[in-house]
Amino acid sequence: MKKIIVISGVLLILSFSLAASAAEYISTQADQKAVAVTIYNQNLALVKDRRTITLPVGENVLSFREVSAQIKPETALLSGGDLDVLEQNFEYDLLTPQTLLQKYVGREVTVIRTHPATGEETREQARVLSANNGVVLQIGGQIETGIPGRLAFDHVPENLRDKPTLTMLTRSAIGKSREVELSYLTGGMGWQADYVAELNEADTSMDINGWVTLTNQSGASYNDANLQLVAGDVNLVETEQPNRRLQGRVMAASAEMQKGMGEEQVFEYHLYSLERPTTIRDNQTKQVSLLQAGKVHCSKELILQGGDYYYRNQYGEIDKKMKIGVFVATENSKKNNLGLPLPKGVVRVYKKDSRGRLQFVGEDRIDHTPENEQLRLKLGDSFDVTANRKQTDFKKVAGFSGYNYVYESAFQIELKNGGKEEATIKVVEPIPGDWQILEESIPHQKEAANTALWQVQVPSLGSTLLMYRVRVKY
User: How many CA atoms lie within 13 A of 373 on its CB side?
Assistant: First the structure.
């Protein structure tokens, strides 16, 4: 900490608006003893910056330099050191050639011209008339646009800072060195979860690696920071704006969580802490490894998803060569080598070809998945398996008076398999209202109140017909 009286050049600060009679004391990252960063999922982080400062007894201006450029000043809290904070300002009007010119509108600057042949310099005074979309100067009795040489300024105007600074008018009861901690919320920081999975040859298990990708665009760097991530929905209220729920879901781990990451429950959230310090630089994207899970049992599923709109009207031929979705399903359980909350993120899946080279086979975005819940990833659509669907019969059984409609319709789904292996296809039909299957070529399962499910075996290079008749009451 150094008392600032006069600094020549660009960083000169002559006055301060909080208290004209109070001396200003500047704290930089050189005074920093520790910094902790807790990151939520969408553009929110909590920073706790601990520094050693020295202030004399009485009222002083304490300037915390190198804070986040996206700090929320109303959340700032200075604690420790027997200090009372009377006022505080966030100085974010940063020193640039343009802002310096704008501050000098109506004031005089020195124009320095250099003779192109002799190199001789001449100086004359000019008044800045405008600094919007260019510069307008009054030199002698003439008005000139542009900069006819170099401009020299007497000093840097007040409140024009080279770095974002939080200034506080403080009252100190003691005059010795003490540790203080400035905590604040800031935007410009976030994280996302990314997973990489490798399928085995039989598509019956996979190895999963999990990462958290951190992005820092807050305007400040955090050196050797204690990093924590929060899992949960944190509610924030913004003044004169609708309430916003930020999804603060952090990367949970597996039964084999990467060393150095600890987990605990705080309030109704999960808190994950990196046990080693890490540096998060401004305008940097950093990846931190969090989980490694091997031999996670899974199954490949081929699913034909229907719609509920074709049970109340005549359609005839509904669709040809329908796409069959390819899914990989697994269970997030300890017995399956997982078993801890997985945050929402993107899962990218790879598989080795016959020569042992990894090939990308698809990706899907998952939502927050607690322990013991099913996880299903859609990786794409099958190339070899297709379906043709048509309505073979339709009639209205009741409801001619305008209510209690009852419809009866029949459908035929032809499933074709151009592959070299037999395929099992899940046909999922969402059926609205009160429904009853009257006839069917393959027994169905009632998966939910509005869902009928058929498991259809289709031979290699062959086809299978699924036919059913259903009565629906609205």
Answer: 12
Rounded Cα distance between 107 and 153, Å, is: 10
Phi, psi of 442, rounded to the nearest 5 degrees = -135, 135
The model's pLDDT over 321-332, given as tens digits with 9 standing for 90+, comes to 899 999 999 999
Report CA-CA distances (Å) from 397 to 117, 310, 312, 409, 438: 102, 16, 11, 10, 14
Give the side-chain half-sphere CA count within 13 A for 315: 17
* Residue 30 token pair: 């050189």
Distance CA 46, CA 44 (A): 7
Residue 407 has a CB neighbour count (10 Å cut-off) of 21
Please list the rounded mean pLDDT of every run of 10 residues in the chain (474 residues): 36 40 84 94 90 92 93 92 87 77 89 89 92 89 87 82 86 89 94 92 94 91 92 65 36 41 64 84 89 93 90 82 94 91 88 95 90 93 94 86 82 95 95 94 94 97 96 89
DSSP class of 134: S
H helical segments located in 322-402: none
pLDDT digits (tens, 9 = 90+) for 409-420: 999 999 999 999
Which residues have C-beta within 8 Å of that of residue 49, sequence separation ≥ 6?
32, 35, 64, 67, 181, 182, 183
Sorted by sequence, the CB contacts under 8 Å of residue 37 that are 6+ apart come out as 45, 46, 47, 48, 189, 222, 225, 226, 227, 228, 280
89 contacts: CB under 8 Å, gap ≥ 6: 17, 18, 73, 166, 167, 168
CA 432 remoteness from chain centre? 37
The number of beta carbons lying within 10 Å of the beta carbon of residue 290 is 25
Nearest to 390 by CA among 362, 356, 414: 414
Within 188-316, strands assigned E span 189-199, 205-216, 222-236, 244-248, 261-266, 269-274, 278-280, 284-305
Structure-block tokens of residue 256 = 């084999």
**Nearest to 86, CA basis, from 115, 47, 60:** 60
Full-model pTM:
0.69
| Cβ-contact 291, 256 below 8 angstroms | yes
